[in-house]
Amino acid sequence: MPVSPGRRGAIAFFVTVCVSLVVLAIALNIGWIVLNWREAVPLLLGVLVFAAIIAGLILNTTFLIREIRRNEQHDAFVNSVTHELKTPVTSLRLHLETLKVRGHALDEAKRQEFYDTMLEDSERLLTTIEHVLQTGRAGRAPLHKSRVDLRGLVDECVTSTLTRRHLSSDTIRVMPPRTGETTIEVMGDREELRGAIMNLIDNAVKYSDTNSGLDISARRSDGQVVLTLRDYGRGIPETELPHIFEKFYRGKQSSGKISGAGLGLAIVRAVIDAHGGKIWAESRQGEGSTFHIALPVANEVNS
Ligand code: ADP
Fold first, then answer.
1. In this predicted structure, what is the pLDDT of residue 66?
2. Which residues of the chain have pLDDT under 50?
3. pLDDT in tens, 143-158
4. Distance in Å, CA 163 to ligand 1 centroid
5. Residues 186/167/251/281 CA torsion (nearest 10 deg)
6. pTM value?
7. What does the pLDDT read at residue 209?
8. Ligand 1, closest atom to CA 245?
9. 295: buried, middle or exposed (CB in 10 Å: 19+, 13-18, 0-12)?
10. What is the pLDDT at residue 301?
11. How far away, in angstroms, is 234 Cα from ligand 1 center?
């Protein structure tokens, strides 16, 4: 996560102070060695004391910098999550008030529109809460591993997204297995993997124009299965691509306009890492994005 200019200044200050003090300590140490080079005991004691002072300085500065970065993360967390919680709650409240005061005067179509918006808002709230909970446990909670049929899981995620987002069935295309290909099973926590795949599909839909489409395919390679999700949406600028898996990172075009707290991809990466897999992305601004997940295949892991 990029550090804010104010905190970057604080880090630069502490590093400068640390380097100056270390240089001073080394100079004093050299002076001590020159003055005492004939007497072994004070020489050795002096060198040890200076080494301890230098190590203490470096440790202290490292600790301070870590705390500054942690504070930055804390602020980013509060800012993005508060915004993500407040927006749907405000909208829900507004719609409920309107329904309460003028509900009888609204025609059926308008009322349905209100209900749909409120359902979307509650969905957004639930997603944010789920992301916050997952961020807390990602990489720490034990995995409940079992054999998971990857294609079955992908189909389940696709059906759920199509229904939830009212999309036509050809928007998300899942490539059928090649002839003769057996079921691809991975050893993993079904719920965690489901969350990760749902996140990637949700992003592909969220960052694309309606109906621009998403292609999903899976192929085996060297004891691994590589799941690929290719969308034709807005794509990711080259400068942003290295940061998208960082906690709280949001693309410039996303902030403020598209819902999200910048936690989704960080959670996906933590889940895939915990399964001994790998995730990476390729993209060009305006030309869509491709996300790949590599996971060890169950049969080959356990045979
Ligand atoms: P969020 O969606 O809440 O912003 P994520 O961690 O899921 O958080 O994504 C981080 C950033 O990566 C997004 O803000 C967006 O800029 C970019 N991104 C992720 N997926 C896609 C995608 N499929 N197409 C374009 N940009 C994407």
1. 92
2. 301-303
3. 889 999 999 999 999 9
4. 22
5. 30
6. 0.78
7. 82
8. 6
9. buried
10. 46
11. 10
| Predicted local distance difference test score (pLDDT) of residue 302 | 45
- Residue identified by tokens 């001994």 is 276
Residue 170: burial class (beta carbons within 10 Å; 0-12, 13-18, 19+): exposed
Task: Report helix, strand or coil for 39.
Answer: coil
Ligand 1, atom 20, residue with closest C-alpha: 203
**Closest to 215 (Cα-Cα) out of 174, 265, 164, 263:** 174
d(CA 72, CA 9): 13
Taking CA atoms, 130 is separated from 124, 138, 250, 260, in Å, by 10, 11, 18, 12
Name the residue with the closest Cα to ligand 1, atom 7: 264
Instruction: Tell me the CA–centroid distance for residue 224 and ligand 1, in Å.
Output: 26
Query: What residues contact residue 264 under an 8 Å CB cut-off, 6+ apart?
Result: 131, 199, 202, 203
Q: Tokens 């899942």, residue?
A: 174
CA-closest residue to ligand 1 atom 15 = 251
In the structure, which protein residues have their CB atom closer than 6 angstroms to any atom of ligand 1? Answer: 203-204, 207, 231, 233-236, 244, 249-251, 254, 260-266, 289
Pocket test for ligand 1, best of 83, 206, 230, 244 (most atoms within 8 A of CB): 244
For ligand 1, mutation pick of 250, 272, 280, 284 (most atoms within 8 Å of CB): 250
Q: Which residue has the tokens 């993005």?
A: 80
Per-residue pLDDT reduced to its tens digit, 171-183: 999 998 777 777 8
Q: Which of 171, 207, 285 should be mutated for ligand 1, with most atoms under 8 A from CB? A: 207
CA of 180 to the centre of ligand 1 (A): 36
Q: Dig out the tokens for 92 from the structure.
A: 């829900």
- Between helix 190-206 and helix 108-137 the angle, nearest 10°, is 130
The pLDDT value recorded for residue 273 is: 94
Give the pLDDT score at 300: 53
Nearest CA to 17 out of 56, 49, 61 is that of: 61
